[in-house]
């Protein structure tokens, strides 16, 4: 039985009867590479065809060296006669040596626009399907946990309520106060031309009751909380902690997603209320110091001129925005591939998606309530 240790020395000799025809014999393998390189380095020879049917063994190294040799001689692969099995190997090595194909012409600019638009639409469609699937899994886990008090994770919910809600109170109230002051000042600047400065009270009240209170809060939490959720869960995935959780027979959605989602559902309406009150205080401060409207008049006009429905319309959006922020923040964390770069990319993606979707939903809600004349 022969082995690779039993080799035949490669030879490359000229045919005595046919000028220009050379015969290759022996083993053309990696073990004989140094002999082959010395053999093929011969110069001053004229070769028009090569008969390689006498080659006993041929591997990728021998094929590569033979291709280099015939290329140096200006020959083509069809000028080399080989055994059928060796010819297939030679063809495979030759195809692997081919240069990469040149880039395909993308065509006119409108074709590229349509192509990129199609890719964007397809990617958005896939993301919507993934989001709906994740929403279904979360709702299913939430319903199952309702009937099992052991799975309520009260400690985790309270911890996230502090992290999401209590720690965000100063920032939310400060920003809302400043925005309320800006809205009142700009409104007073415009309305003063018509002698209607008193209507600044209604302007500030309606804007914060219906829109700014919940919208500012949701945008702040989208940047502050959604990014934190994505980074936390993404870091756990990159550290293979999610695999460990599944190995222990636990549900990552029940353990990681539901406590965060419950904390957002409980705290976002409260933060919305505080943001609305802070915005009204900012508007009242401008009215008192700039327009000469007393606090009693400001509060009395709010009570007399504004219907409570404006407040409840704004508050009704808070749970929806909380669901969007929590689900997207956690979903992007589960999408992390396992490295630090992926964590950063999906953290950025979660912030962009939540802020965009919150503003989009708020616009649809405004049109919906306007059509209902509310």
Structure notes:
This protein has helices spanning 33-40, 60-73, 84-96, 109-146, 154-164, 169-191, 200-238, 241-247, 252-291, 295-305, 308-334, 340-371, and strands at residues 11-14, 21-28, 49-58, 80-81. It has two domains: 11-96, Transcription Regulator spoIIAA (2-Layer Sandwich); 134-371, no CATH class. α5 (154-164) runs parallel beside α9 (252-291), α7 (200-238) runs antiparallel to α9 (252-291) and α7 runs parallel beside α11. The longest helix is centred in the C-terminal third of the chain and has 40 residues, at 252-291. It is of the alpha/beta class and 374 residues long. Helices cover 70% and strands 6% of the residues. A four-stranded mixed sheet has the order 1-2-3-4. The chain is built from twelve helices and four strands, in the order ββαβαβαααααααααα.
């Amino acid at each position: 039985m022969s082995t690779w240790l039993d080799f035949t020395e490669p030879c490359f000799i000229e045919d005595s009867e046919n000028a220009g025809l050379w015969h290759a014999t022996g083993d053309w393998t990696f073990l004989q590479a140094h002999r082959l390189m010395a053999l093929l380095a011969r110069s001053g020879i004229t070769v028009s065809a090569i008969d390689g049917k006498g080659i006993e063994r041929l591997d990728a190294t021998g094929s590569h060296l033979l291709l280099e040799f015939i290329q140096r001689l200006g020959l083509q692969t069809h000028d080399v006669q080989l055994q059928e099995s060796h010819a297939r190997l030679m063809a495979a090595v030759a195809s692997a040596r081919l240069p990469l194909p040149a880039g395909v012409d993308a065509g006119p600019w409108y074709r590229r626009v349509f192509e990129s638009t199609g890719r964007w639409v397809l990617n958005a469609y896939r993301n919507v399907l993934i989001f709906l699937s994740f929403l279904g899994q979360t709702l299913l886990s939430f319903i199952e946990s309702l009937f099992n008090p052991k799975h309520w994770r009260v400690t985790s919910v309270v911890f996230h309520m502090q992290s999401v809600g209590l720690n965000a109170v100063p920032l939310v109230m400060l920003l809302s106060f400043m925005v309320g002051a800006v809205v009142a000042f700009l409104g007073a600047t415009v309305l003063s031309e018509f002698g209607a400065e008193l209507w600044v009270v209604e302007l500030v009240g309606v804007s914060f009751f219906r829109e700014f209170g919940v919208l500012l809060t949701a945008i702040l939490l989208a940047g502050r909380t959604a990014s934190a959720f994505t980074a936390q869960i993404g870091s756990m995935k990159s550290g293979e902690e999610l695999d460990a959780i599944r190995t222990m027979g636990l549900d990552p959605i029940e353990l990681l997603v539901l406590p965060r989602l419950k904390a957002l559902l409980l705290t976002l309406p409260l933060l919305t209320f505080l943001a609305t009150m802070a915005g009204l205080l900012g508007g009242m401060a401008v009215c008192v110091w700039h327009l000469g409207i007393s606090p009693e008049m400001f509060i009395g006009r709010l009570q007399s001129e504004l219907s409570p429905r404006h407040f409840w319309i704004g508050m009704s959006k808070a749970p929806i925005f909380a669901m969007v922020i929590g689900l997207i923040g956690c979903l992007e964390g589960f999408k992390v591939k396992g490295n630090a770069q992926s964590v950063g990319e999906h953290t950025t993606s979660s912030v962009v998606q939540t802020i965009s979707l919150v503003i989009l939903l708020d616009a649809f809600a405004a049109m919906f309530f306007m059509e209902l004349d509310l």
